[in-house]
Amino acid sequence: MTRLHVISASVRPTSAARPVAQWVADRARAHGAFEVTPVDLGTIALPFLDEPEYASSGVYTHQHTRDWSALVDSADAFLFVLPMYNGGFTAPFKNAIDFLYREWRDKPVGLVSYSAGPTGGAPAAEMLLPVLTRLRMRPAARSVAIPGIGGLVGPEGFAVPEGLADRLAGVLDDVAELAEQRAAEAVTV
Ligand SMILES: Cc1cc2nc3c(=O)[nH]c(=O)nc-3n(C[C@H](O)[C@H](O)[C@H](O)COP(=O)(O)O)c2cc1C
Known about the structure:
It contains six helices and eight strands; from the N terminus they run βαβααβαβαββββα. The protein has helices at residues 17-31, 41-44, 63-73, 91-98, 122-134, 164-188, and strands spanning 2-8, 34-40, 77-83, 108-114, 138-139, 144-146, 153-154, 157-158. The longest helix is centred in the last third of the chain and has 25 residues, at 164-188. The protein is globular. Flavin mononucleotide binds at residues 10, 12, 15-17, 83-87, 115-117, 149.
């Protein structure tokens, strides 16, 4: 089974990412192709990048980097659940990405974005694509954007909009297929 890490890519204490990521992780488990690990960036609480060497060196001096490295390394694929801030992805998430290099490389990734406004954070996901490509990750062809997030999360959790489960299933199918391709390449190399 593909080891899928569902990363809740927001660190605000009241982040909408948590209830959304919890639902996404449940759907990923139900999909059948994945062994799912939820990852909450808020709990991981990385500082700003403070390693003296480039991440590409793999030389890490801080325990928080080694822990983050081990966690990301243990995944075969990812789902990023990310908000949009001022038209783009968030600084803490970019920082968390920049901490590592080899650990992301070649791995499939699906994007689930959300925002208060009507775009559902699609511009943030678009903005992230060149970053993922630079890391030689394998972004899924399909992605999910959830608009009007303010009206969907509350004490009851996440009120799932109609049709969202089907759209997420498409992303999960894409990630599963990309992970299969990657595994097949590893066998033939
Ligand atoms: C700094 C900041 C900037 C935001 N900018 C936008 C924006 O450009 N467009 C939008 O639709 N919503 C924007 N929002 C609303 C967020 O998409 C919404 O509050 C979402 O829940 C934030 O994610 P979080 O709960 O994980 O922090 C912004 C929120 C914050 C905190």
